[in-house]
Design brief:
By secondary structure, the chain is α+β, with helices and mostly antiparallel strands. The protein is 30% helix and 36% strand. The protein is elongated.
């Protein structure tokens, strides 16, 4: 499966997307969790505003 993912990125289909990771604090426990998502490049700032 890894070869398939690398091949699709090399074709140029993955250049329009970015994997973003945001640290979110839980209101109940106070611990941090990581929320990660693949978003289009023009929506990256919107992801971090949420």
């Amino acid at each position: 499966m890894a070869k398939k993912a690398v091949a699709s990125v090399q074709k140029g289909g993955g250049k329009g997307h970015t994997k973003v990771i945001k640290m979110v604090k839980s209101p109940k426990t106070g611990s941090y969790t990581f929320h990660e998502e693949v978003v289009p490049n023009d929506k990256v700032k919107d992801f971090f505003k949420k």
